[in-house]
Write a structure and sequence with these properties.
Length: 409
């Protein structure tokens, strides 16, 4: 059997609590695999089903509702930002969700195995903790299995339930070791995985995330009109790990040098969120716009209209937002953390900063004052973005699938 197979029958698995980087990757991977003539089935929980219904030619397998007790909106919240009673009720609800999920996955494994046989599935590819756990116990087990690690499965201390019930950490580790291959989205993530579980060293390979460069550029209509003389976009919303509070404090320092600087904060940010309070406390209301959730085309129009994308993440396993900025030729200011330096090259296509408002403000001021530097970074990003176009990245997955199937046969 050749290592590269022209037409394959592929199953992608996703059990998720909301839209983000991993979900975007599953969507784009499915779409691009389908475009290349491969048959694709997506196994997904009902809470996420509607996002994938727009994919033409892709089969969907409904796992049913898997989060019966906890409102989906709470999955994006932070425990430190809600009241004690609400926090306690959340923990109780989440516990019951975890128990139900474990029981339900055990119940549907046989049905999943029948799905693989009926649809002649040749390889199964999981993307999150719960779906990796699900497919690791599938029957028939002879079907090749791949798991992609998108984020920080090791940072379970940030999720109080998974700290209390640490068996999930152990289950995920065992599930990964059952995979034929494990892909990490960055060298940084690959190294972290191998330190966490040394037995994965022979299985882990790096395949980065991608973007559809042509689609991003074609979807921009240039109708967005920025409000300031120097416009920034922070796409991290309410997620504390994305560094929104650092950006706001940097904005306060910038305002003394650039009175009409303006920052757009994209993503859902609740009304009483600390980020909104910080904006009010620092009297930056006229310099800040909370956009709320934006559909991709609106987000890209806004991104095209601003001068700089800024997101000093406290941790990052990759960062698709940086690729989108590159595709539209935007200089980037980002934290020197995690896998970010694998995408943002300091002084080439952006500026890497310490997680400090003063340092962030200094980098932004440098781009404002040095138009030639900003233009050089913008042009570099337009070229470098092609390294992360989905077309060659999907080919890497196709080759991986073919190689695994050849070995298994």
């Amino acid at each position: 059997m050749s290592g590269r197979i022209l037409h394959m029958n592929i199953c992608l698995a996703l059990i998720s609590t909301g839209w983000g980087g991993a979900e975007t990757v599953v969507f784009e991977l499915a779409r691009n695999l389908n475009r290349k003539g491969h048959a694709v089935t997506i196994v997904v929980n009902r809470e996420m089903l509607s996002y994938f219904r727009q994919l033409h030619g892709v089969r969907l397998f409904d796992l049913g509702y898997l989060h019966l007790f906890t409102p989906m909106s709470l999955y994006s919240a932070r425990l430190g930002e809600i009241s004690f009673l609400r926090r306690l009720s959340w923990i109780v609800c989440w516990y019951f969700d975890e128990v139900y999920l474990h029981v339900h996955c055990g119940r549907i494994r046989r049905e999943m195995g029948n799905l693989l046989l009926k649809n002649h599935i040749e390889i199964v590819h999981s993307h999150m903790i719960d779906d990796t756990f699900l497919i690791s116990g599938l029957v028939p087990s002879r079907v090749p299995m791949v798991a992609t690690v998108h984020g920080f499965p090791l940072r379970l201390h940030a999720n109080i339930l998974r700290t209390i019930f640490g068996s999930k950490r152990t289950s995920y580790r065992k599930a990964l070791t059952k995979m034929d291959k494990v892909t990490a989205v960055s060298v940084f993530m690959s190294q972290a995985l191998c330190e966490w579980e040394p037995h994965l060293k022979e299985k882990v390979i790096v395949i980065p995330n991608g973007v559809d460069v042509a689609e991003i550029r074609d979807s921009v209509d240039l109708t967005s009109t920025p409000r300031g003389d120097f416009n920034l976009l922070f796409p991290g919303g309410a997620n504390i790990f994305k560094g929104g509070n650092l950006v706001i404090r940097a904005l306060a320092r910038l305002k003394s040098e650039i009175p009409y600087v303006h920052t757009y904060i994209a993503g859902d940010v609740p009304r009483n969120h600390p980020l909104r309070r910080l904006v009010r406390e620092m009297r930056l209301e006229s310099n800040t716009t909370f956009t709320g959730f934006l559909r991709p085309e609106k987000y890209r129009n806004l991104l095209r209209s601003v001068d700089v994308l800024v997101m000093p993440s406290r941790e990052a396993s990759f960062g698709i937002v940086y690729l989108e900025a590159m595709a539209l030729g935007k200089p980037i200011v980002a934290g020197k953390t995690g896998a970010v330096p694998e995408v943002v090259k300091d002084g080439r296509n952006g500026i890497l900063v310490q997680l400090d408002p003063e340092h962030i403000a200094s980098a932004l001021l440098r781009l404002y004052r040095n138009k030639d530097l900003a233009e050089s970074m913008a042009n570099t990003n337009l070229r470098d973005a092609m390294r992360f176009d989905w077309d060659p990245i999907v080919e890497r997955y196709v080759k991986l699938y073919g190689d695994i199937m050849a070995l298994k046969s």
